[in-house]
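User: For documentation purposes, I need each entry recorded in a consistent format: the amino acid sequence on its own, followed directly by the corresponding structure tokens. There are two entries in this batch. Please keep commentary to a minimum and don't merge the entries.

Assistant: Recorded as requested. Entry 1:
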Amino acid sequence: MATRKSSSNRQRAKKRPGGRASSGTPPKARARSAEANAENAQQQLAQGLQSVLLAGMGALARAQKEGPAAFQDAAIEGFKLLNQSRSAAQRMVRDAFESAQLTLHSRVGGAREQAHETLDNLESLFQSRVQRAMHQLGVPTAEEIRALTRRVGELNDNVRQISARKRVKKTAGAKRRVAAQKPKRSRKAPPPPPSAEEMT
């Protein structure tokens, strides 16, 4: 009586929240069984195809011996066998494909995460090494180039301002010199025109 209760307690403990009992097999074992199912399906498919081929070859041999009537009978039987093999093969291929797809999804997910981590690590390593090599060669960084470009712009503005001031001073000085060099005209009355006697 006690053993029955303990076994029923174990069965209740193994049940999942959804109401189904857990299979107790780890995911790797399920993946292996899926791969085994896929290989089994491939073998069965190959055997089915081989049977179809042999049936066709036998029908051809019989047709050569017995003539056209036997050939038609063999073709009909071969067609029936082909349909049966095709449906069985499709079913096997579908099952194999589903199990392979589950296995592939689990493996691809892990591989994708690992690839992303590896690429990120490689990218950061590559960037740091390139930056170090460029620094050793004396190549300025992008920030240094931006700062230098700003400084050159400021210097150009200063040079323009200074040259504009010099031009203003030169023109003002030239105007003063010109004004100083011009003789000052007196506002005296012009001399009287010569008289007729002076002209003679």
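Entry 2:
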Amino acid sequence: MAIPGRHRKVQGPYFVTSKTWDAHAIFQLTPNCEVFVETLLHYRDRGVYLLHGFVLMPNHFHIHLTPDSGVTLERAVQFVKRGSAKKIGELHQHKSPVWQRGFSDHRVRDSADFQLHLRYIEQNPVKRHLCTVPGEYRWSSATGSYRMDPATQGLKPLEKASRFGTAEAVP
């Protein structure tokens, strides 16, 4: 029985998290980290998605992205996970699983939510004591070393996001 698809028609940014197989800390090794980041940036450059932010932790990742209009969220994440797993397997000459099946996601609805998830990405390595300030952690967009895409159009601005759709003329 197939797993039903999600978000097939819903466009916009998402915050995605996925863990490594059995929570193994395979991303403590620099070559594995390099493969993941290269894969992530490769598919961004191919136009599969806009990449707004990311962090690669020792046993999981967080990505803030907007899939292209012709790409489902599932497919975008599949490109990243399958592409990096294949290259890591070739690098170490083994076929052990790299990623846990599936991922969790959150559809970003407004500018405040967008910024909240970017800050979460930046602070994750600090909270886990991998660095003292976000820019020190090499495997994160917080370093400023990687080109990130700006927020997508159509997000509610910060000041309008809290109005819950009520017309301004209504007392």
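Summary note for entry 2:
The domain at 14-161 is CATH 3.30.70.1290 (Alpha-Beta Plaits).
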